[in-house]
Amino acid sequence: MGDEQVAAPTKQRRISQRGIATRERILEAANRLMFVRGVNATTLDDVREASQTSKSQLYHHFADKQELVRALVKYRGALVLQRERGGLERLRSFSGLVRWRNALVQANSLNNGKYGCGLGSMAVELSDQDEQARSMLLETFAAWEKLISDGLHRMRDSGALRQDADPEKLATGLMAALQGGYLLANAAHNVAPMEVALDMALEHIKSFLSEPSGEPTR
Amino acid sequence: MGDEQVAAPTKQRRISQRGIATRERILEAANRLMFVRGVNATTLDDVREASQTSKSQLYHHFADKQELVRALVKYRGALVLQRERGGLERLRSFSGLVRWRNALVQANSLNNGKYGCGLGSMAVELSDQDEQARSMLLETFAAWEKLISDGLHRMRDSGALRQDADPEKLATGLMAALQGGYLLANAAHNVAPMEVALDMALEHIKSFLSEPSGEPTR
DNA sequence: CACAGCGGGGACCAAATAGTCCAGGAAAAG
DNA sequence: CTTTTCCTGGACTATTTGGTCCCCGCTGTG
């Protein structure tokens, strides 16, 4: 009867700069810790200590641990996609793919193959445990693969790749090789298997390159 | 001074049939539960309940959770290797590889891609957490890859594969594609990415098959 | 049948860990 | 400057979970 609220005001909470910074600090700490120890093996107390915050802040910014983890999935996904956009957005040639491969290998070799892929390891840990996290990770993988397949499409359009190349499948295969490579490298504490895996995938893509000159073999 | 024991009697515990059966029951339950929920997300109470045993039995047969997990790594590794030996021991042709691929895909499609590889998911969860488990998993992966590379060696020796094929690298690439495929299939709850990944790896191996007739292209 | 030692049930304990609360301080709005 | 709302510190609670203990039963052996 009284003043009904039209177009619900959403109870918009004011948010201060300091609050944003704290939230960011928590996420950043969770990101680091859960990268090296895994999600389930990291406690909120670890995060609290590493982020120099207190319990109440954790629960002020995140409803519970699950929410923190989900926020981390989003956070890490954004990081990876941003990084990958840099390396793949202008991909137009096979040598660009090789450079991309080298960058990933070099980054992973800095920790001797340890820890694996920030996205892949979360996918393994969370897929059977948090449906929402799984679906976010799935989307992120899709976006990542799309960065690759878009590049491959450009290569096909420019004639570098043959018409019978399937950019989507090639991208999926490359992503699988990358993730499998991360996994084996992590188990071996050695980046070598990841190199072999990526090289296999690149070799496979190479087999779809147009003949530089001369008529096709068949 | 007194009666020093020569050649320590090892305090050999008698072990009854019933004891063996209980231990097996525990391992089998842990295997099932940790396969679907993950290792860290499975509690000892879950295992106790699922195996119809009691706390004291768990600790009678395993020193602590870590030991149980390590025993599971061994147990599961033995299962996988046994299964794979069946499919790979007589591998002599490319079509054999295809059959092997189909069997894996079909098995995984029964759960819509969920849960991933029993070995791979443990590798992700444990590699950064239990050095001993990691090294056992590493050995198991090596043995698994060797089953593959042995088959490829046979194919090369028989002339099916060209001399410039590198069985070890091909096996590593195939294993990475498999593991990456499992991972993506798990995230997607769909076996399709695993198929694409395995097909890529098989296609790559195919490119090393000897020309059935006619002279080599180059 | 008696005895030794393994196997088992389940209560109990202790530590770790998630989650709550409230008072006080900082920052934005009026 | 005053008021309101947000942000923070940190003590406190509840629950989960790994791990211990004790006592009894079973089983095989002499």
Report on the architecture of this protein.
The structure is a homodimer of 218-residue chains. Chain A is mainly α and 218 residues long. Chain A has two domains: 49 residues, Orthogonal Bundle (Arc Repressor Mutant, subunit A), CATH 1.10.10.60; 131 residues, Tetracycline Repressor, domain 2, CATH 1.10.357.10. Helix content of chain A is 68%, strand content 0%. Chain A has nine helices and no strands. In chain A, helix 4 packs parallel to helix 7 and helix 5 packs antiparallel against helix 9. The radius of gyration of chain A is 22 Å and the shape is elongated. Chain A starts with 16 loop residues before the first helix and ends in a 12-residue tail after the last helix. The N terminus of chain A is likely disordered. At the A-B interface, helix 6, helix 7, helix 8 and helix 9 of A face helix 6, helix 7, helix 8 and helix 9 of B. Chain A binds a DNA duplex (30 and 30 nucleotides) through helix 1 and helix 3. Chains A, B: This is TetR family transcriptional regulator. Chains A, B: Pfam families: TetR_C_13 (PF16925), TetR_N (PF00440). Chains A, B: Keywords: DNA-binding, Transcription, Transcription regulation. Chains A, B: GO terms for molecular function: DNA binding.
